[in-house]
Amino acid sequence: MRRTAAAALLAAVLFSAGAAPAQQPAFEPVGTIADIMREIIYPMSDALFYVMRSPPETDYDWNLLARRFLTLAESGNLIMMDGRSVAEDDWMTYARELVDVSRSAHGAALARDLDAIQALSPRMEASCRTCHEQYHPRYRRRPPPPDDR
Question: Domain 30-135 has what CATH class?
Fold first, then answer.
């Protein structure tokens, strides 16, 4: 009788453990999309756009540049997270392009290929511009200057 009860208890525990739904990671967004853009994406993308202002020369410079591109790539993942992303296909397409271009720039920095990094700048600019034209409410929509009459 004890064996039957113990076996039943063990089976119940094992079954309930196997049947329990898998818990999802508890992501807790801290910043808004605007925060991520202003504090991460803009400064890290400047490393790509303006790389020739101060081209990397030392190991430290190349490692810093690679780190910036890795941060930029991961920021694309941040803006695709539930609770942050815009529920539209275009948003996800632009965010994936940010990840893809940044991943390529990261690889180029690790390979110390300055030409490859420079070649990615137009692709990054196009991705940023098309996304901002669609989703940034004030992008290129500033009021005209006051009339000086």
Answer: mainly alpha
